[in-house]
Each structure stands twice: as structure tokens, then as C-alpha cells.
Amino acid sequence: QLQLVESGGGLVQPGGSLRLSCAASGRTFSMYDMGWYRQAPGKEREFVASIAWRGGGTYYADPVKGRFTISRDNARNTVYLQMNSLKPEDTAIYYCNIRPPTSTMWGQGTQVTVSS
């Protein structure tokens, strides 16, 4: 079981960048595939990106390919999401969880708002 805390969200103009962090407590962090997810107002939560625990292979949802980059630092028990070329449709609460997600590990998320 991991405790996950997201941070790094904020208000940014279209075309801008943000870097999200997800800090995990628990000695087994390095053994989990990790993912970022988001939920926009009035929509269901959706998958954004994932990174494997072994080898660091990554996978992205089509809307963010080429703009977002997921990475992890197992020594720091942290997973990151670098978001570039942000669009208004990226506005959402962003969450991290294992991949596939489990209901017991959702944190409070971090709000990202892309607006001029």
C-alpha cells in the first residue's frame, strides 16, 4: 500500500508548461508501475501516462503524446509529469496512482488550469 501526494499544479497560459510531482510513502514504490490520471469538470477520470517499474517503459494517452513526459526517481519515491504546450482542454485535477489504479490509493490530486 502506498500513500500518494500530488503537487505542482497551478494556473498557466496556453502554450505554457508545468511539472507535477507525486511523492509516495512506502518501501515498495519501486516495484509498482505508476500512472498519472486526470478528471476534467463534468467528465470521468481518464488515463494520461504510465511508467513501468522495471526498465522505465512509458505509455501515453493520444491527447498528450509529444507534449507530456512521465518519469520517476525510485530513490526519492517520486514520479513526475512534465507538461509542455498546455492547452485549455488539459484543465483538470491530476492524480497519480499505480497502474492499473486501485481505489484505495487515490490522493487529493493537484489542480491544473490552462487559461488566458
Please provide a written account of the structure.
0% of the residues lie in helices and 47% in strands. The chain has strands at residues 3-7, 10-12, 18-25, 34-39, 46-51, 58-60, 68-73, 78-83, 92-98, 110-114. A six-stranded mixed beta sheet has the order 2-10-9-4-5-6, with no helix packed on it. Strands 1-3-8-7 form a four-stranded antiparallel beta sheet, with no helix packed on it. A hairpin with a 6-residue loop joins strand 4 and strand 5 (46-51). The termini are far apart. The model has no long low-confidence stretch (mean pLDDT 95).
Short description:
By secondary structure, the protein is mostly beta strands. It contains no helices and ten strands. The protein is 0% helix and 47% strand.
Cα-atom Rg, whole angstroms?
13 Å
Strand pairing plus helix content: what structural class? mainly beta
Kindly state the mean pLDDT as a whole number? 95
Give the ordered list of helices and strands: EEEEEEEEEE
Properties at a glance:
single chain, 116 residues, mainly beta, 6-stranded mixed sheet, 4-stranded antiparallel sheet, 10 strands, globular
List the helices and strands and how they pair.
Layout lengths: L2 E5 L2 E3 L5 E8 L8 E6 L6 E6 L6 E3 L7 E6 L4 E6 L8 E7 L11 E5 L2
Parallel strand pairs: 2-10
Antiparallel strand pairs: 1-3, 3-8, 4-5, 4-9, 5-6, 7-8, 9-10
